[in-house]
Amino acid sequence: MARDQLALFEAPSLPPGFRYRPDVLTPDEERGLLEQIRPLPFREFEFQGYRGKRRVVSYGWRYDFNEKVLRKADDMPEFLRALRATAARFAAVDPAELQQALVTEYAAGAGIGWHRDKGMFGDIVGISLLAACTFRLRRREGVRKWERASVTADPRSAYLLRGPSRDEWEHSIPPVDALRYSVTFRNFRPE
């Protein structure tokens, strides 16, 4: 088989700065988190008058997409501070640096389109719960082409967007097949 044909079957390389690790939580830890997460005061995601299928709740800080401003939000509850310590170990940062938490509920059929997180945020650490999803990444390559990569984010796994994977690549999640939760922690870029 020719070298070019073999390349078709190789897994695409992930962008520099992107890390993924399965099983950062045990099944028992996941169950305990879900008990705490399910009753949170979720609200439909709003983006410039559009309501998304996913529901969210923010802690520490909340970005208001309608007014395009960052607002102070409620402090993280204790169970999220414990999860933040896990996320911080994975990202090799101090837990106190992860000042923003976004908990997202994806009902079956919900996803999130191509985007980059707002520029004031630095590292992005996500933890997947309950169901797997495809975490897609892309960056423009020329005028009409995209360089693409993806990873299956399994329940209890974590991913990190830092450096080029954070600044040069967009990410998205296509509609999920089953109820899924994610907890995303962010820090702020140095001023």
In terms of per-residue confidence, which ranges show pLDDT below 50 for 5 or more consecutive residues?
1-11
Order of helices and strands: HEHEEEEHEEEEEEHEE
Number of strands: 13
What is the global morphology? Answer: globular
Radius of gyration: 17 Å
| Estimated helix fraction | 10-25%
Strand order of the largest sheet: 1-11-8-13-6-3-2
Total helices: the number is: 4
**Terminal Cα span:** 52 Å
Roughly what is the average pLDDT, rounded to an integer? 90
Structural class, by secondary structure, is alpha+beta
What kind of sheet is the major sheet?
A: 7 strands, antiparallel
Strand content: 35-45%
Write structural notes for this entry.
There is one protein chain. The model is unreliable at 1-11 (pLDDT under 50). The N and C termini lie far apart (52 Å). The longest helix is centred in the middle third of the chain and has 14 residues, at 78-91. This protein has a seven-stranded antiparallel sheet. A four-stranded antiparallel sheet has the order 7-12-9-10. It has a two-stranded antiparallel ribbon with strand order 4-5. With 191 residues, the chain is α+β, with helices and mostly antiparallel strands. It is globular. It is built from four helices and 13 strands.
What would a concise description of this structure say?
With 191 residues, the protein is an alpha+beta fold.
